[in-house]
Amino acid sequence: MSSYFKNFRKTLYLFGNEETPVAIQDLSKYVNIIDELADQISAYMTYEIREFERPDTLSHRLYGTSEYDWTFFLMNDRIREQGWPLSLQDIYKLGTEHLYRDWTCLLDITTADSSAEFATKYVKDQEVLLNGRLMKVKYKNLQLGEITLYSPYYSIDSDFSGQTMLSYTDGTEVVALKNTINEYNGTYHYIDENEEPIDFFFDEGATKVPVTNLEKLIQENNELKTIRVIKKEVIGNVVGRFKTLTGL
After folding, report:
1. What is the structure's pLDDT at 239?
2. Which of 30, 35, 39 is closest to 11 using CA atoms?
3. Which tens digit of pLDDT belongs to each residue from 137-166?
4. 167-170: long-range pairs with CB below 8 Å, 24+
5. Residues 190, 119: one domain?
6. What does the alpha-carbon distance between residue 94 and residue 90 come to, in Å, rounded to a whole number?
7. Under 8 Å CB-to-CB from 119, ≥6 apart: which residues?
8. What is the DSSP code string of 73-99?
9. What is the residue range of 156's domain?
10. Burial grade of 85 (CB within 10 A; 0-12, 13-18, 19 or more)
């Protein structure tokens, strides 16, 4: 980010889905000021962030200098809170190798009542057997009829797809599964023909289309790409007003 923020106090901040926070200048106390400016002017336009485009390169392309990269974060709540959007290649890697790298078991159930039978079974971090291989429960989503497992005892490259038998380690509570798939292909939620989220068990007669975890991640990343930017002809005036109001 540009040197403009060198006088701002620093704070720890997590960008996107990174696990390690970094120290950056604290922008939060100045958010209301730029929001007021944005509401008062008709000097911005909608822009679609391109693949591999960074804040500094976008600033240079729009304004001829990288010094105004900070305005994108102050003008857009979502990237200020969630971070700059990733390229499709990077968001796919994030989803398949980090966020959703485990395995989802599809329960062979069709009603809410049969799903509720699993409410007290297969709790988080419980050791289980998936076709005889030792795993642990990562989480359950009984509204979707899915149980997701992780494998601390096997290589990240181990393949558990297609497995159809789940049980406790003592061989009890045997469950016949419809299938086991990659977690990133597990269901985030279901939508209807109008692309509205629906309840899988209770919305009878609705068209039920699954949206996978990876598809949802890509969708949210794509939504970050539409931002508003200050027009070139007024960027100097807006930044000047911002500096005056902040005393920087």
Report:
1. 83
2. 30
3. 999 999 999 999 999 999 888 999 999 999
4. 167/128, 167/129, 168/126, 168/128, 168/129, 169/127, 169/128, 169/129, 169/134
5. yes
6. 6
7. 142
8. HHH-HHHHHH-SPPPHHHHHHHIIIII
9. 93-220
10. buried
> Do 179 and 162 form a contact (C-beta atoms < 8 A)?
yes
Enter the tokens of residue 25. Answer: 């200048």
On whether both 213 and 97 belong to a single domain, the answer is yes
Q: Which two tokens stand for residue 108?
A: 């062979």
Asked whether residue 60 falls in the same domain as residue 23, the answer is yes
Looking at the fold, whether 76 and 106 belong to one and the same domain comes out as no
CB 98 within 8 A of CB 20: no
pLDDT of residue 237: 82
- Report d(CA 217, CA 219) in Å as an integer: 5
Question: What tokens were used for 62?
Answer: 């729009």
- Please count the residues of the chain: 248
Q: Residue 127: what residue type? A: E
Task: Say whether both 216 and 122 belong to one domain.
Answer: yes
Do residues 211 and 144 touch, judged by C-beta distance below 8 A?
Answer: no
- Model confidence at 244: pLDDT above 90: no
Q: Give residue 67's identity as a one-letter amino acid code.
A: E
Q: Which residue has the tokens 């922008």?
A: 27
**Torsional sign, CA 154, 88, 64, 248:** negative
Count CB atoms within 10 A of the CB of residue 33.
Answer: 14
3-state secondary structure of 5: helix
Q: Lowest mean pLDDT: which of 19-33, 110-124, 154-168? A: 19-33
